[in-house]
Amino acid sequence: MTPHRKNHPRNAAAAALVLALVPLTAAGPAGAAPTAPASSYEMYQLEDAISLLVEADEDRTGYTPAAFPHWNAGQDPGDLCDTGREVLLTEAVEAPDTSANCTLSGGRWHSYYDNQSTSSLRDLTVLHAVPLVEAWGSGARNWTAERREAYANDQGANGSLNVVLTRTARERGDQNINQWHPPADSALCRYAKDWVATKLRWGLTVDKNENEALKFLADNDPCESFWVIYRPAPA
């Protein structure tokens, strides 16, 4: 698979603004593309990935959390862990102990949204990269119930579900990327990357303000080295 790249002059003033917010994140040797995990994946620089998104008005009317059943039995029903606990196990930087009925104890996690680590499970939430109501308003309202459940429990893509501090999850709520970004400066480009990858993976649209916010981020140095790697979700 050949990675996609586009080069053009940058807006220096805008770059300076974002540089003040987000330190430049190294992604290997200059100009080097990451290696995609398999040929079935698509890989684009962030700017080019954003250009693939379809712009359309958002319609959140009729949304209810019940339209996205979660958490379900997860990838391995036999482990007695629901999707949320499976994500906690996958993202642990120090593995917790697991007892009957997937009760977790101990362990340690890092919330990239906050650039903070904690061993307190009660301080953590498994959060959708793109909020459920945002997905609904961007096309999921037209999906089957089964596809919405698959979206809400998606462990098939890195970044679809993230372990974050509960207080940060509450602050984010249902806000779009043009309304809110993670409190850690170092998280902004990764957050944009996860947002775009999720939208492309599931064929979701972006509204005008959202699209402009994404383009602004991608058009400046801190985020231009980031690559979006995704695989379309199963039909």
Automatic annotation (TrEMBL):
Q: Sorted alphabetically, which Pfam families does this protein's record hold?
A: GmrSD_C
- Database matches in InterPro entries: GmrSD_C (IPR011089)
Where do the GmrSD restriction endonucleases C-terminal domain residues begin and end? 103-214
Signal peptide region = 1-32
Named from the GO MF annotations, one term is: endonuclease activity
Instruction: Respond yes or no to whether keyword Glycoprotein is given for this record.
Output: no
The keyword Manganese appears for this protein:
no
Q: Which keywords has UniProt assigned to this entry?
A: Endonuclease, Hydrolase, Nuclease, Signal
PANTHER family recorded: AMP-DEPENDENT SYNTHETASE_LIGASE DOMAIN-CONTAINING PROTEIN-RELATED, SECRETED PROTEIN
Protein name, UniProt field: HNH endonuclease
Look up and give the organism this protein is from: Streptomyces qinzhouensis
